[in-house]
Amino acid sequence: MNQKRFLGICLIFLIFIFIFIQPAYVGPGGIMTKALLKSFWCKAALTLMAITCLPLAIYVYIREEIVA
After folding, report:
1. Over the Cα atoms of the chain, what is R_g?
2. What angle do CA 26, 40, 32 make, to 5 degrees?
3. Most buried by CB count within 10 Å: which residue of 9, 31, 46, 57?
4. Which residue in 36, 18, 17 sits closest to 26, CA to CA?
5. What is the C-alpha to C-alpha distance for residues 46 and 50, in angstroms, rounded to an integer?
6. DSSP characters for the chain?
């Protein structure tokens, strides 16, 4: 792919993102977290995410320490 075509595609992509992206309306993180953690389903989802992601994070940390 030549450079002009690649730059054109990138430019179109950026224009598309800036035109059609929707702003995120959220409250302060601490207040949101306190409110969410009162729900049973949120606690269950966060526990499931921790069980899923923690071994991956530990694996990546160990791999980085071995390589470094």
Report:
1. 21
2. 15
3. 46
4. 36
5. 6
6. --HHHHHHHHHHHHHHHHHHPPPP----HHHHHHHHTTSHHHHHHHHHHHHHHHHHHHHHHHHHHHH-
pLDDT digits (tens, 9 = 90+) for 15-49: 887 777 666 555 666 677 777 778 888 888 888 98
The answer to pTM > 0.90 is: no
Domain count for the chain, please give it: 1
Indicate the residue type of 67: V
**Cβ-Cβ contacts under 8 Å for 34 (sequence gap 6 or more):** none
Q: Which domain holds residue 32?
A: 3-67
